[in-house]
Design a protein that fits this description.
Blueprint lengths: L3 H18 L2 H14 L1 H5 L4 H20 L10 H12 L3 H22 L5 H8 L2 H44 L4 H11 L6 E8 L4 H14 L4 E6 L2 E7 L8 H7 L4 E8 L4 H13 L6 E3 L4 H4 L5 H12 L2
Parallel strand pairs: 4-5
Antiparallel strand pairs: 1-3, 1-4, 2-3
Helix pairs in contact: 1-4, 1-7, 2-4, 2-6, 4-8, 5-8, 6-8, 8-9, 12-14
Organism: Mycolicibacterium neoaurum VKM Ac-1815D
Pfam family, one: RsbRD_N
Protein name: RsbT co-antagonist protein RsbRD N-terminal domain-containing protein
Amino acid sequence: MSTSAEATQGIRQVARNLLRQGVEELVEASADRISGEEPSYGDAHVTLADVARQTRRTLSLTLYRLAELDVPAELSTAAYETGLRRAEQGLPLASLLHAFRIDLRLLWDAITHEVRDLENAERLAVLEQHTLLWEALETNTADVVEAYRVVEARQAQRLDRRDRELFKRFVATTERQPDALAAFAAHTTLRIDCQYSTFVVAGLSDPRETATVIRGRLRTNGFHAFVTVHKDDVHGLAHERNGQGPRAELLADASGDGSVAVVPAIGLSGVPRALAVARKVAAAHNPGSLVDVGQDPFGQLSASEPELVEAVLDYRLHE
């Protein structure tokens, strides 16, 4: 085998041979390794039969692509469907990609075994075409990741809608309907009797993106928090640690050109009133401003509109 083209045809012929022989041994070996190396499959309640079924389809798809044969219609979406299914089952993406790497090792071992009787030079020439196998599997992997992200986006949208509905009910009816407070506490796992820093970021062009950034910053800094978009502004609350909420600068840095208002709240039941004040304060200040009502509130409000001063004073006097 003297040319690269011949070596390419050689590895493609190996793939055709493996397809003719069937992939059942590979499927069984893959399912065994996945169940042994990836406990996440068990945690996600993915059955061995399910693993075998999807592995059979994705391995076959890889071999069809490597063999450069027309992919049967029933296999063309195998990798994409696997990504959808595993995401819906709650399997971590890292575990799914690890399973594909297991399949890669098994396929490479099978190819190596298939060419074992060739002359050394011919065998090495075929094996040097390993990038074709990587490319075939990489196409599958891209389909899997794309599908997984689609499900993640759908789930995030559903969760966002639920968050916003619960939050709207929480801030609007907590004083009249105690069950709204209990439902919000249960959903967020925020304690009812703790101190919170509440905040509102107003004047944003993309409040959802800002909410995502702030949510990530608070999580990274170890705060148990809830952040959502309400009335086109970012609203949030963070459980204070040792009497301290997140640094106001942290919120400001994540808020871009939005105006930020931070108001303390004693207990979860005090959060709706604190947020109402924060909304007024944030709306009354220029883009990029930061007002922490918990720090020298009277000095900060000396130049504010009378209505705003009255709202803050009323809140502070009735905390």
